[in-house]
């Protein structure tokens, strides 16, 4: 090959790297964001279980359950979690729903031995991937314990 044919190729590897690097960075940041979303899911799930465990105690109140959920949630702002789940949550907002078996509002377990308490925690998070659409997802965790 002669030297003149290689002169036309100058800079081609830089262009190829720019094309491939942008795709690799998008995959890298997507993987990181998936890990963050999965961690939020694990935290919300653990908070729901902790809330249900607290709700299964004889003298537990709704405030006790919500406080326990807020204290035990990880990677999510606990102060953004409200009582009662509306139809739609804004990004960065969460909610706790407490549902006993049977009908009516929540009552302490000493009034309903043998029934269960179910706590559902929802949190609306944003998955941010550069150069890609940033979808909002609702992460939900459920916990259920039998009254002691």
Describe this structure in a few short sentences:
The protein is α+β, with helices and mostly antiparallel strands. About 40% of the residues lie in helices and about 20% in strands.
What report would you give on this structure?
The chain is an alpha+beta fold and 148 residues long. The protein has one domain. It is built from three helices and four strands; from the N terminus they run αααββββ. The protein has helices at 3-7, 12-55, 62-72; strands at 81-83, 94-100, 116-126, 136-146. The protein has a four-stranded mixed β-sheet. The radius of gyration is 24 Å and the shape is rod-shaped. The N and C termini lie far apart (85 Å). The mean pLDDT is 84.
Largest beta-sheet characterization: 4 strands, mixed
Strand order of the largest sheet: 1-2-3-4
Secondary-structure element pattern, one letter each? HHHEEEE
Number of helices: 3
Number of domains: 1
Beta-strand share of residues = 15-25%
Termini distance?
Answer: 85 Å
- Structural class category: alpha+beta
Overall pLDDT metric: 84
Quantity of strands, as a count: 4
User: What overall form do the CA principal axes indicate?
Assistant: rod-shaped
Q: What assembly state would you assign to the polypeptide chains in this entry?
A: single chain
Amount of helix? 40-55%
Which spans have pLDDT < 50 for at least 5 consecutive residues? none
- Overall radius of gyration: 24 Å
